[in-house]
Amino acid sequence: MAKSKYEYVRTFEFEDRCLQNCWIVVRLDGRSFHRFTSSHKFEKPNDKRALELMNRSAAAVMEEFRDVSLAYGQSDEYSFILRKNTDLYNRRQSKIMSAINSIFSASYVYYWNTFFEDKKLLYPPSFDARIVLYPTDQNLRDYLSWRQADTHINNLYNTAFWGLISMKGLSNNEAEKVLSGTVSSEKNEILFKECGTNYNNELPIYRKGTVLVRKLVNLPPSKSKKHVICPLHVDIIGDSFWEEYNEILNLKDLILNKNFKPDDIFYLVKRS
Amino acid sequence: MAKSKYEYVRTFEFEDRCLQNCWIVVRLDGRSFHRFTSSHKFEKPNDKRALELMNRSAAAVMEEFRDVSLAYGQSDEYSFILRKNTDLYNRRQSKIMSAINSIFSASYVYYWNTFFEDKKLLYPPSFDARIVLYPTDQNLRDYLSWRQADTHINNLYNTAFWGLISMKGLSNNEAEKVLSGTVSSEKNEILFKECGTNYNNELPIYRKGTVLVRKLVNLPPSKSKKHVICPLHVDIIGDSFWEEYNEILNLKDLILNKNFKPDDIFYLVKRS
Amino acid sequence: MAKSKYEYVRTFEFEDRCLQNCWIVVRLDGRSFHRFTSSHKFEKPNDKRALELMNRSAAAVMEEFRDVSLAYGQSDEYSFILRKNTDLYNRRQSKIMSAINSIFSASYVYYWNTFFEDKKLLYPPSFDARIVLYPTDQNLRDYLSWRQADTHINNLYNTAFWGLISMKGLSNNEAEKVLSGTVSSEKNEILFKECGTNYNNELPIYRKGTVLVRKLVNLPPSKSKKHVICPLHVDIIGDSFWEEYNEILNLKDLILNKNFKPDDIFYLVKRS
Amino acid sequence: MAKSKYEYVRTFEFEDRCLQNCWIVVRLDGRSFHRFTSSHKFEKPNDKRALELMNRSAAAVMEEFRDVSLAYGQSDEYSFILRKNTDLYNRRQSKIMSAINSIFSASYVYYWNTFFEDKKLLYPPSFDARIVLYPTDQNLRDYLSWRQADTHINNLYNTAFWGLISMKGLSNNEAEKVLSGTVSSEKNEILFKECGTNYNNELPIYRKGTVLVRKLVNLPPSKSKKHVICPLHVDIIGDSFWEEYNEILNLKDLILNKNFKPDDIFYLVKRS
């Protein structure tokens, strides 16, 4: 079609390809979620439905992009890991980052009613995104360990903080003062003694966050192989997760997963 | 709060600040909108409600970011212009681009029902984003002229193409053949002779796209000054638009706009 | 010619083009020149021959690259200004920066003997380089003003410092203490009263640094037009320099310069 | 010291840090060396003194930067490998690249007379530079294999080409035609049959290029440990080189090298 004399402005665009052979991580973070969670009266310290909505939105990203081999979420953030050999959008940073962020953001609004049937969405929330490259498998695992360790640190604090408020009737300031300077074992102790809560009995989704993995499974009744995305709430810092899902770091194709129980929660990838 | 030994992975993040004293343009494009528009049976060649939904979503971006001084949209794309002296997010590209894209994407789903009361959103659409810098006012105007010239070129073609199909009963292939190699004046001629359509009578929103500008106005009954965002469907290639809205290129504050009629369509900026 | 299977490593190279329509500045700085100047017993506070060697090396850069329209040097640094519309090396940063730096560094060693006939070069000196973009003429002028203001600030201080040492017999520490916290007028006063030196009588090359400009001139006896590079020691902060050499900011071709006196110092561009 | 109002222009500089945990390769290439070699009548197809001058200049770079753990050169190009964990200049690309290029360029001129006692340097040569990142050891080895395979391909061709000209009296065009489309074994055959040359008897420096490695050695008579840089002309594509110099990929300190014979050519690192 005809071109205008203004076309020259395209030459101002710049290339922003990710370095080859590096893991690509896209992390989304809720923008102004302090205000969003209080406007929508999310439960404290964790709102299970809100976390499940995050997971559903993240699954929508994985349904769209096969090269996102794993995702990890906690609170109002989600990290997406692209295979180090991906050629998605010629590895252009802005394309990869913006597409993932847009699918996630639109899905969060789209699926809101599925998880909050009784609660109206008052305004559209939003997320910002960043992209980071990790050259080695160890760097990637350390990135994910960093996020999961962060989940633990924040959730233990928040559980103790809200426990002191809701069960002991402390004010925010008083709760803050009690916890100030305490180490993990002390927070566990406070939770147990003051609130009667054994932290280890808290829901895994709160303590561990959610890791989304891909599985190839038999889904009754059809018995044909299906590609699904499963939310797990397990440790990803130690080796055992990485041994069980060794295809991720090894860049291998999925093989039939025989441990899959169709009663598990999962998201079916339609266009597999 | 405590930090883990994995914290070092943060050093892999990189700085991506926009060069100072350049206009920053963020352009969003609908991803796979061919499929999206046909799934949702958008009207051809233009769906007025869909365009208004785009405009509403873009206004949501402008409500959030004061430094977006103008936005221009057509079809499934929208460009946002940030003041050349903006310090939003320290001019970090990924932050600026992802926040704008996320607000727009979430708003598109959120406001869907406002514009398509009778039509269910079948799945969440998404947009990709890019960021481009323009050093001079002329470069910026040429960018916007490029997009509006593109609107004209595409819309004239599409209007003639769908006119030949709907009014003359041609097949897609036949219509394509008739228009192949024609210049603008010939397409105008075909439209007029074959379809009885005077292209200049087509709606300005189709022919010119939409430019969103900010205004400071008196809104009855309160008479207090309010900050609003107004959709215009005017030429932005010539000088007159830029003279009327000279505060944009001059980086000036808004002054009270006395030509504003409260019957105009506008979006009220709540937190002005 | 044949290619090896290792060729894929080329895909790891990245594009680093300078934004269009911006002035490109490459600034070189002497590496470890404190050690270099003391090893080679440069005169304090200024060594005229060393400055002339810097100028000669910078002229070599301008002889090679027509799009370097101006250069400014002081002490052990030199800035090269490339026309904002240059297409040199497709505006690739690393190519532009490294070629300029290499020509300058090699020339500095090559021309050493021309300026220091009696002094042996003990080891090869080196320079680092950076590249900076300036979108507007005002930004560019401010950059050059910054460097010339720096020349003034440093040279006034150094002249007073070394004057107190050489003429008044102060130690380094004593001289430092005398000058500590003084403003320009006070340093001028100290120089005049203590050392009998009127700072304004210092050589312009010391007070103003050197700006290299291009001229098109008649060189006797041939009378044919020649392209030369002339070192000036003039103010470049005010407007008059930019009016006289208006072709620089206006991106114009050189016109015959009738004020040129063949007795002036100049470098002939051979391949004009 | 005082600052001027123009200081703001510094904010236009941008950060250009190399991604952490990647091998950093800086490759220099002679600019217009076709002209340079013919002006200086370098021997064809290889000029041994010119190669030794390249090696000497590269050694100067390694003397300066401890984190350059290996360098590889051929013809008019040289690659410098920085340890993947280097923190040199905070991994800033422009600093690393420009410093290496400047030292090399200045050294080439400085040491010219050492290698070409009877030949005057007619003008200063120059080199351009680029920087490339390699995330894994394998990528790095493949990069070096690429360069050494290139050495082989070029040198075999050039040896045959100049052999046909100097020994068989062919013209450039005729020699080119004879070699056109031949594979390696055919070029070997032509060399042997037509020129009586067994390619494998050509000097290793021509066939393999030069790899510069660091060694810690006993240098008589002092017997104290000295840090030296040794030029080798060996295969670096296979594993044996990397096993012998395993400290390079393993980022280990040097241990005393007992195979070193002081008669070998080496460059002593003074400031070890």
From TrEMBL, chains A, B, C, D:
UniProt keyword annotations, A-Z: GTP-binding, Magnesium, Metal-binding, Nucleotide-binding, Nucleotidyltransferase, Transferase, tRNA processing
Domain of life, source organism: Eukaryota
Reactions performed catalytically: a 5'-end ribonucleotide-tRNA(His) + GTP + ATP + H2O = a 5'-end phospho-guanosine-ribonucleotide-tRNA(His) + AMP + 2 diphosphate + H(+)
EC nos: 2.7.7.79
GO biological process, one term: tRNA modification
GO molecular function, one term: magnesium ion binding
Pfam family, one: Thg1C
Domain tRNAHis guanylyltransferase catalytic: 6-135
Binding residue positions for Mg(2+) 2: D29, D76
Thg1 C-terminal domain ranges (all copies): 138-218
Names of the cofactor(s): Mg(2+)
Alphabetical list of Gene3D superfamilies matching this protein: 3.30.70.3000
InterPro entries: Thg1_C_dom (IPR025845), tRNAHis_GuaTrfase_cat (IPR024956), tRNAHis_GuaTrfase_Thg1 (IPR007537), tRNAHis_GuaTrfase_Thg1_sf (IPR038469)
Positions of Mg(2+) 1 binding: D29, G30, D76
Cofactor stoichiometry and binding remark: Binds 2 magnesium ions per subunit.
Family: Belongs to the tRNA(His) guanylyltransferase family.
Subunit structure and binding partners: Homotetramer. Interacts with MFN1 and MFN2; functions as a guanyl-nucleotide exchange factor/GEF for MFN2 and also probably MFN1.
PANTHER family membership: TRNA(HIS) GUANYLYLTRANSFERASE-RELATED
Protein name per UniProt: tRNA(His) guanylyltransferase
